[in-house]
Write a structure and sequence with these properties.
alpha/beta, 2 domains, 18 strands, globular, Cytidine Deaminase, domain 2, Ubiquitin-like (UB roll), 6-stranded mixed beta sheet
């Protein structure tokens, strides 16, 4: 997919830039952890509120802010999403890709974000019309209730995941430790989900949002707008391994999906059909694989590794703030 221009208006400036200015992103992928990650100090994303605790004592805590974002593809309104609003351009492009409304040969001429009216417009060189597709709507199981238009399984059977992709257990243990101890909105305020694009034992792009479907769409958009391929990539999510997460991961061509949460039956069935390695309940030294077990290389002895216990530091300070 060719990406040309991003234009932002208002007080919130997006990170999207013309692709040539992001040429170094692919170099950074080969050497760095977290080339992009959540900023829990961003005052636009949380706000302070007061209340009382279980003993009736006054408390002040921070809660995640959610705001509407209306997406247009050229002149057609597609959907209004509830989001924290930190990367509207990535969310817009990734949503359209994962809805199969943008194809690899489409040329994006502009992504325009208007902060004051909470609207993002994706413009393409060729005209588009998804009137019929928009009539068929599926509400997903995700938090903030995502919406899928058209056939949920569209293109799923066409994808062929690389057969030689592996996951070393040493990578898995390192990834879960880095991700769970990294500064995030989850640790600061809870009530949020995260998705992370990884390579071997390095977390690369970490996105959070009120729904895991938004977080995965942001990563899809980031990959497309920065020319990042799926070779050697691993996907991590904090949410449940549902059919939607499996379908989107497969459509992105990523052969390994990891979560610290559990599974749904259809998610497991689809993962087995696609040859996706599906690994859940990955906490500390433990995990369960229900699909793609042949991709796992057991190169680490968890009993000899330090710092992998399920520490309370990886949870929000106030359990009441934790949103599933």
């Amino acid at each position: 997919m060719r990406y040309l221009v991003f234009v932002a208006s208002g007080s919130m400036s997006g990170d999207g830039l013309p692709l040539p200015e992001w040429a170094d992103a692919r170099i950074l992928l080969s050497m760095s952890d977290f080339i992009l990650q959540p900023d829990p100090d961003d005052k636009r994303l949380t706000q302070g509120v007061t209340g009382v605790d279980q003993d009736g004592r006054p408390v002040e805590t921070r809660v995640v802010v959610e705001r509407p974002l209306t997406l247009f593809l050229n002149g057609q309104e597609i959907v209004t999403m509830m989001t924290i609003g930190d990367h509207p351009e990535y969310l817009a492009v990734g949503y359209l890709i994962n809805q199969n409304m943008l194809r690899p040969d489409d040329e994006i001429t502009a992504v325009e974000y208007e902060d004051d009216i909470e609207t993002v417009v994706v413009r393409t060189k060729n005209p588009t019309n998804f009137e019929e597709k928009l009539k068929k709507k599926t509400l997903t199981s995700g938090c903030a209730q995502g919406t899928v238009f058209g056939d949920l399984m569209e293109r799923f059977d066409e994808v062929r995941l690389p057969g030689d992709a592996i996951l070393k257990t040493s990578w898995l243990y390192t990834l879960t430790k880095k991700i769970n101890t990294s500064p995030s909105l989850y640790l600061a305020a809870g009530a949020i989900h995260g998705c992370v694009l990884c390579e071997e034992d390095r977390p690369l792009v970490y996105m959070e949002d009120v729904g895991r479907h938004n977080a995965i769409d942001k990563i899809a958009g980031y990959m497309a707008m920065n020319g990042i391929g799926n070779d050697g990539k691993i996907f991590y999510t904090t949410g449940r391994l549902t059919s939607e997460m499996v379908i989107k991961t497969v459509q992105m061509g990523i052969p390994i999906l990891i979560s610290r949460s559990g599974f749904t039956a259809w998610g497991v069935e689809l993962a087995r059909k696609a040859g996706l390695a599906l690994i859940g309940r990955a906490k500390g030294k433990r995990f369960i694989a229900l699909s793609g077990e042949n991709r796992i290389v057991y190169d680490a002895d968890p009993t000899k590794l330090r710092g992998l216990s399920e520490s309370k530091k990886t949870q929000p300070a106030d359990p009441a703030r934790h949103g599933a």
